[in-house]
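Notebook entry, structure prediction.
Reason for the run: the old model in the group folder had no record of what sequence produced it. Starting over properly, with the input documented here first.
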Amino acid sequence: MSKERQIELHTRLTYSDVAGIIEALNEALKDGRLLIQKSDETLELPVPRVVDLDISAVEGAERTSFTLEISWRPNRPEIPDCTT
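New structure, fully documented this time:
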């Protein structure tokens, strides 16, 4: 079994800068390979054709959040819930 590797980033950016990051992730997803870099750390993730997608949005008096999570499991059947 291989050792788990992880890169995390917690920062404050303008929404324009965040949009640029999301656009870069979008292009990488289209290629089926995400390359995550932070300082001298790099994590390359091959992405299968079918992934799990979770989206949540919460608007509160003190804090609003939007979360997008994309995950997958190796060797899982590529059967999507829906197609586009």
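Summary: The chain is about 20% helix and 35% strand.
The old model has been moved to the deprecated folder.
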